[in-house]
Amino acid sequence: MLAAAQTMDERALRAELRQQARDLGVAVVVTDVVLPFLNAVGRAWERGDCTVATEHFASQVVRSWLNSVALSDADTSATATATAIDPVVLACPPGERHDLGLLCFHVLLVGAGVPSRFLGSDTPLPGLADVCRVVGASGVIVSATRSRVFEAHGGALRVLARHYPLAIGGAGADADLAERVNATLLPADMRRSLAQVVRWHRGDAVGLTVSA
Ligand code: B12
After folding, report:
1. How far is the CA of 145 from the centre of ligand 1 (A)?
2. Range of the domain at 62
């Protein structure tokens, strides 16, 4: 896939993702193919083995595949039934453009039957609170690659956590930050995070709690 990205071979990249999804299922492709692929692109970029343009191209192909599977999963009967359940809302704070990890998590949630609304990168936090109110969010998941992005919005996140169970994830999230903003820290391992959010959403685990 890295070779296909380097030669801008979109057809080969898409065909590989489609084939792997047929063989392994979407969830496994997200955790075992897409995330390692994005990291491989990142390492190649850091080594100077691929250009910023290649990284943008790979990110866009992955994004469009993730969007297409999220849409088709949202139409399946399991998730259609689940629309009666309050959704989880997913967003990156202002200043954070790295939203592909969160989009991967959205696809995993939808596939597991947890209704999810993905707002993506650079989301103004007052707007995020509005969306939560409109959809009657059962919880909010905010992710960022750099801890300073969370720190810059600590006050607004604490306010959000007073109204909705809040969880933070991504490479910029840590236990100390989570404690400071009254959030639950989601593990970097997306399978473990997914299991935690699914349990919490079904209401059979302490998982995320609303602070007083
Ligand atoms: C693609 C990319 C971009 C794309 C983002 C595309 C997109 N829409 O997501 C673009 C080009 C926009 C970009 C911009 C920048 N980037 Co950039 N980017 C990357 C790159 C190559 C890959 C990131 C990625 O998607 N990785 C895949 C993710 C999913 O993997 P991961 O972050 O390791 O996440 C793991 C876990 O944290 C977890 N996880 C991730 N998200 C979530 C969410 C939840 C809910 C959960 C439970 C778990 C979870 O799952 C993963 C598997 O374990 C990395 C390099 C790298 N090695 O990662 C740099 C990198 C993240 N970028 C970096 C930087 C510095 C920037 C810029 C500041 C560059 C610049 N000077 O403009 C800007 C910042 C823009 C902004 N305002 O946010 C640095 C960050 C360093 C740091 N920690 O401070 C990195 C590490 C590159 C580097 N070594 O310098 N970038």
Report:
1. 5
2. 2-75
In Å, the largest CA–CA distance within the chain is 54
Question: What residues form DSSP beta bridges with 167?
Answer: 141, 184
> The domain spanning residue 33 has which CATH number?
1.10.1240.10
Distances (CA, A) of 45 to 55, 63, 64, 134: 7, 18, 21, 40
Cα 197 to middle of ligand 1, angstroms:
22
* ∠ CA 203-206-210, rounded to 5°: 90
List, for residues 99-128, the tens digit of each pLDDT value.
999 999 999 999 998 999 999 999 999 999
CA distance linking residue 166 with residue 172, whole number of Å: 15
90 lines ligand 1 (CB under 6 A): no
Ligand 1 atom with the smallest distance to the CA of 186 is 47
167-204, pLDDT tens digit by residue? 999 999 999 999 999 999 999 999 999 999 998 877 65
Please tell me the residue having the least CA distance from ligand 1 atom 46: 169
Which residue, 37, 58, 75, sits at the end of a domain? 75
Q: Are residues 69 and 93 in the same domain?
A: no
**End of a domain among 75, 92, 124?**
75
Q: Which of 122, 145, 190, 197 to mutate to test the pocket of ligand 1 (most atoms within 8 A of CB)?
A: 145
